[in-house]
Automatic annotation (TrEMBL):
Coiled-coil regions, chain positions: 69-111
Native organism: Tursiops truncatus (Atlantic bottle-nosed dolphin)
Domain called Prokaryotic-type class I peptide chain release factors: residue spans: 243-259
Gene from which this protein is expressed: MTRF1L
Name by which UniProt lists this protein: Peptide chain release factor 1-like, mitochondrial isoform X2
Swiss-Prot/TrEMBL GO biological process terms: mitochondrial translational termination
C-alpha cells in the first residue's frame, strides 16, 4: 500500500513541480483519494503519529506539515457547524473562513506529497538549461522564446543566478536555440521535471486566417557537476624518466626529455615528451 501511494505521489510531483504548475491528478490515484479517510496516505500519516519522535529525527518538515493539516481540517469541521447558525453575519463570516481554510488545506496536501518524494544527490546542484524549437516553424520559435523568458523570470523570482550561455534568435523575434546556466538554492530540484517536449495549440501571430496551429519545443535540464576532491597517494605512482642518447650535444645524457607516470592500482599511463628539459 505504501509503495502504491508513493508511486502516485512521485507521478503527481513530477507533473506539478516547476514554474508551469497545472491542475493534474496523481497518476492512478487522485489527490483527494490519497488523503481520504482510510486511504493509503492518510493511513500512513496516522501511523506516524505514534512514532513522532523517530519521524522528527528523519523528516521534521513532514511532521510539522502533517500536524498543521490535522489542525486545519479540525478547524474546518468546527467552522462548518456555523453555516447553520441563525445569525446571517455569522454565517457569512463562516463561509469566508471555510474558503480560506480549504485553500490552506489544499496547499498543505500538495506540500506533503512533495515532501514524500525521495530526494536526489543532485537536488542541490546548479543546472544547465537548454531550449530548442521543434515542429511548427516560426511559431515554434516564438513559443521557444516565451518559454525561455518564462524560465528567466522564474529564476529571478526564486532569487537564482541566471546567465545566458547561447542565444540564436529567429528573423521575427523568436528563438531557435538557447542555453543558460542557473544557480541557486535547490535549483535542480525545482527544475528537473521540466525537461521534455512542450506543446502549444493556439492561433499564431503569423497566421492570417485564424487557424489553430500546434507547435512544439524541447527543454533539457542538466545538473552541473560539483567539484571532486581527488586524492592520489604518491606511493601508487611510478614515475619513469628518460634521457636522450647519442653523440654530442650538451643536453645528451644530462637532461630528462621524457616522463612516464603509471598509476599502479589502475594501470593507467600518461607520457609526455619535450625537446628540452621538463621543469
Amino acid at each position: 500500500m505504501r509503495s502504491r501511494f508513493l508511486r502516485s505521489a512521485f507521478r503527481w510531483a513530477r507533473q506539478a513541480a516547476g514554474p508551469a504548475r497545472r491542475h493534474v491528478s496523481c497518476g492512478s490515484l487522485p489527490l483527494e483519494e490519497l488523503f481520504a479517510r482510510g486511504g493509503p496516505l492518510r493511513t500512513f500519516l496516522e501511523r506516524q503519529v505514534g512514532s513522532e519522535v523517530q519521524l522528527q529525527v528523519r523528516r521534521p518538515e513532514l511532521v510539522a506539515v502533517a500536524k498543521l493539516l490535522n489542525e486545519k481540517e479540525q478547524e474546518l469541521q468546527e467552522t462548518g457547524h456555523l453555516l447553520h447558525d441563525e445569525n446571517e453575519d455569522l454565517r457569512k463570516l463562516a463561509e469566508s473562513e471555510i474558503t480560506s481554510c480549504q485553500k490552506e488545506i489544499a496547499q498543505l496536501k500538495h506540500q506533503i506529497i512533495l515532501l514524500l518524494v525521495p530526494s536526489e544527490e543532485t537536488d542541490e546542484s546548479d543546472l544547465i538549461l537548454e531550449v530548442t524549437a521543434g515542429v511548427g516553424g516560426q511559431e515554434a520559435m516564438l513559443f521557444t522564446s516565451e518559454i525561455f523568458d518564462m524560465y528567466q523570470q522564474y529564476a529571478a523570482f526564486k532569487g537564482w543566478h541566471f546567465e545566458t550561455l547561447e542565444y540564436f534568435p529567429s528573423e521575427i523575434g523568436g528563438l531557435r536555440h538557447a542555453s543558460a546556466s542557473i544557480g541557486g538554492s535547490e535549483a535542480y530540484k525545482h527544475m528537473k521535471f521540466e525537461g521534455g517536449v512542450h506543446r502549444v495549440q493556439r492561433v499564431p501571430k503569423t497566421e492570417k486566417q485564424g487557424r489553430i496551429h500546434t507547435s512544439t519545443m524541447t527543454v533539457a535540464i542538466l545538473p552541473q557537476p560539483t567539484e571532486i576532491n581527488l586524492v592520489i597517494n604518491p606511493k601508487d605512482l611510478r614515475i619513469d624518466t628518460k634521457r636522450a642518447s647519442g653523440a654530442g650535444g650538451q643536453h645528451v645524457n644530462t637532461t630528462d626529455s621524457a616522463v612516464r607516470i603509471v598509476h599502479l592500482p589502475t594501470g593507467r599511463r600518461k607520457r609526455m615528451r619535450r625537446k628540452r628539459s621538463i621543469p
